[in-house]
Structures are given as C-alpha cells and as structure tokens.
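#structure-requests
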Amino acid sequence: MKLVVLDGYTENPGDLSWEGLKEFGELTVYDRTSYVESPLIAERISNAEIVITNKTPISRTTIDKCPNIRLIAVLATGYNVVDYNYAAEKGIPVVNVPTYGTASVSQFSIALLLEICHHIGHHDKTVHEGKWAENADWCYWDYPLIELEGKTMGIIGFGRIGQAEGRIAKALGMNVIAYDLYPNESGRVIADYVTLDELFANSDVISLHCNLTPENTEMINRNNIAKMKDGVILLNNARGQLVNEADLADALASRKVAAAGLDVVSTEPIKTDNPLLSVPNCIITPHISWAPKESRSRIMDSTVENIRAFLAGKPVHVINM
C-alpha cells in the first residue's frame, strides 16, 4: 500500500508525527505541492492508493491521471478542494475530519471579538513604546471600549462550533440568537432560532460558522449589510467566500459595520489588493483558528482512524457516498 501526503506542513510543521500513517504502508510526505491546479499534483500522487490532502486540489483531471487512487483523505472538515462528485463516480470515497476544531475555532472567534472590544494588542504596544509612562493621566484608551454583557450575538451556522461559541457568549452575559437550516434541541438550550433577516436586524455581533454553499456565497453583501444595526461587529471563522469583500470594506469605511474580525478571506493566501487590507477597523489573521497543537493532533488521529476504517471495509466520515 502506498500513501502520499501532498501538503503536510501546516498540519505537521514538526511538532507531530506521521508514524500512525506508516502502519498502513509506504508513506511519502510533501510539505507543499500546489494550491492551484498543476500537473505536479498527479506526478506526486503517481501510483499511490491513498491520497491525503489539506488544501492541495484533487480535480477530475488529477483523478483520471491517477487510476490507482482508492481513497482521498482530507486533513480538514472542508472538502471543497476535492472534486468529490467525480470521485464518487469513480468509486473513490472522500473522507474528512468533522469534529476536530470545535474548541479551538470557537475560542479563536471570541478572541477576535475581545480584541475588537478592548484593542489589547494596540494598548500593550503603546505602553511598551512609553506612552503610559509619559501620560498626564493615570490611564488612557485610544479607542472606545465595548462591554458585551446584555448585547446580542447572532450566529449563522449553529452546529458544533457555533453552539460552542454560543455557550461562551452566554457566559459573557450576551443574548444569543441563531440561524441554521436544521435547528436542534441542543441549539435551543443555548439560543433562540430566528430567521436570517431577524438575525441581521437584531444582532450587535454577527458570527459566521456555516458551510459554504452556492446559496450562501457572498451572503454578507451590500443588501444584507443594509439590514443590520449601525455599528454591528462581524466575525468570520468559516469561509472567506461567504463575504463580498468589496461590500464589507465599504461598510467598514462608512462605519455601518464598526469592526470585523476575520480568520479567512476569499483567496488564501490573501492577495495584496484585497480591499479589506486598506480599512483600519478590520482584524485579519492568517487562517489559524484551527491550528493549536491539540486541534491538529485530533486531525492526525482521526485521519489514521479514517484510513483504518476504510481498509477494514467499514469507512467512516465519507462525504460523497
């Protein structure tokens, strides 16, 4: 059995081990291959039977060039980098890791919100630059500070991560409302389910935790932003394509949206001409909410179990069959 990892560096930059995968056969690990369609992808897969990818795309063309593929394992929850429908036509299961990032992503989303509310990094920097030592008063703040208790958080996509964030928001004294296509009882314990328009109209903070679909692509756009409260805060730890970035940049510039905290953008790595880079009230981090070692360890362990289950004839976490 031959296995190939196409882009292993972000999953394991050296603090984890690939040993669990070696039990299945001959393993080749590449740190990086390509994040766009490239002949190199099929070249590196070669005659491997199990392909493991994070963000390297596996297209129809690649699948056709690599007839030995029996399984495609994604080192993530999102699987849009794989042409999973065509893989299904070829009888190739695509498996993902659905639950690894619940704690880390919800924690990071709240961290973005707290940074927006208090500008801790900025104020720490000014203290180290000497501003406090030279200040005429015993304290100062360079931005309005925001207390969250009593404010309303609206969460779009109320699955495991959304509900985890909702629990943290409630612990901060916030009211929580949610929109989800599939309301459930565990969600009702945390939040009141509302329509999307009701969420836009009533939220002081809007947080995105939904999957990307053709129906919700660029759902945060000029028309829907107009339905929101003046001074709303937007958080996105889901997918960058949920946001029309030019429309959001305009809303941030006008202060219709007071601030945004984003761990994802539409094209990653971010392009230098992304309009969100030019607005000062927008925090952008490089898609790292998933990346604590504890979270990545769960990805590794789950991927090993996905492959073991497949080889035992009892595949799990299959998204295309």
